[in-house]
């Protein structure tokens, strides 16, 4: 009778261990599945955030490029204006210099007479 009790106890313990092992494996699979889903969700979220950040950077770069173009255009216009002013000054000085020797020659001619 004691032997049968011991065998019955062993059988129940063995059955319980198998049930616990099966339950543990099911929980482990469930947990791994949830963790995998969460990781995939995080990866998708990261990709969306990276894409959004990339799009924002491209938009900012386009804005800066436009501003740079506008500034370069302004600098070019200012440079052309200054160049035209300098050209006018040089032309005026050239005319004065061209006129000066003639006046000096004319003055010498009148002094010689």
Any overview of this molecule?
The protein is 98% helix and 0% strand. By secondary structure, it is mainly alpha-helical.
SSE order and pairing:
Layout: H1 2-112
Spans of at least 5 consecutive residues with low confidence: none
Largest sheet: none
Structural class: mainly alpha
First-last Cα distance? 164 Å
Give the helix level as a range of percent: over 70%
What's the number of extended β-strand segments?
Answer: 0
Work out the helix count: 1
Inertia-based shape: rod-shaped
Q: Which key terms come to mind for this protein?
A:
113 residues, mainly alpha, rod-shaped
Entry summary:
With 113 residues, this protein is an all-alpha fold.
């Amino acid at each position: 009778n004691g032997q049968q009790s011991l065998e019955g106890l062993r059988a129940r313990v063995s059955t319980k261990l198998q049930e616990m092992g099966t339950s543990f494996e099911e929980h482990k699979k469930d947990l791994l599945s949830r963790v995998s889903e969460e990781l995939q969700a995080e990866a998708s979220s990261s990709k969306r955030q990276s894409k959004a950040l990339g799009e924002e950077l491209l938009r900012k770069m386009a804005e800066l490029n436009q501003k740079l173009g506008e500034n370069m255009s302004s600098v070019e216009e200012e440079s052309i204006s200054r160049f035209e002013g300098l050209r006018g000054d040089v032309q005026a000085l050239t005319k004065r210099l061209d006129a000066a020797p003639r006046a000096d020659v004319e003055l010498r001619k009148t002094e010689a007479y």
